[in-house]
Amino acid sequence: MPKTESACLPAHSVLCLLTLLALSTWTATALAQTRTDSPYYARANTFGIFTAYSGDSSHILLGDAQNRRLLDFGVSYSRRLYRNRIVNWQYDGELLPVALESDPVVHTVTTQTSPVEWTYSSNTREVAACVAASGSFQYGSPGRIYSGTYVQTCTRQWNIGEGISPVGMQWNFLPRHKMQPFLVGHGGYMYSTTAIPVDHAGSFNFTFDLGAGIELYRSKTRSVRASYRYHHISNHETASENPGIDNGLFQVTYAFGR
Length: 258
Description:
By secondary structure, this protein is mainly β. It folds into two domains: 45-103 and 158-257, Porin; 105-155, no CATH class. The protein contains one helix and ten strands, in the order αββββββββββ. Strands 1-2-3-6-7-8-9-10 form an eight-stranded antiparallel barrel. A hairpin with a 2-residue loop joins strand 5 (133-141) and strand 6. The longest helix has 26 residues, at 11-36. It is elongated. The N and C termini lie far apart (72 Å). 27% of the residues are buried.
């Protein structure tokens, strides 16, 4: 009799089909886990809350004003632009609703004793750092000599302002590690209610900073940054005086996002 073909698959064919289904399910699961559990510590969007402080200023590169202090409180936003094994390149902008700048004030009390007695006091902000001093003076011409004493003390004036740095970049290196060194730089402006750093300088100033730091990730979404930056403030010759301020600024940021 002629052989008739069975309508059912052979047992080994069924086993192969089940094996292929199992492999497909395992592969899909592995790919999903790979997409979810990225080896990178590098958020796509990052928000930050920070404070920054500098206790002194000097002629580091461009500024001449001495003994100025900065205290900032602000927020930041970062957006990832490019990432590989070596670098995580991000746009980074900062907003400073509270930007405080402090100038040394020279308080001088002058007492003239001859030819008539009078006392005069003044407060001035100089480019140089304030130095306490006292002494006597005498000047004039024969027949009319002016003499007296003076006492010079130092106080400090805090100036309230706000700022924004809409142009900024940050480069994190070794983005697969929890501890990442980074470079950072910004450009923007600062507006203060008083001309800084001296009386005839401007209330509107341009700013920029360049620095480096360390970012320590506590998880894939949260981290802490610490950086040290060269920070410059200048009115770019838009006022009658422009001594400029150079600070070494230390900043700590709490960052979070996804």
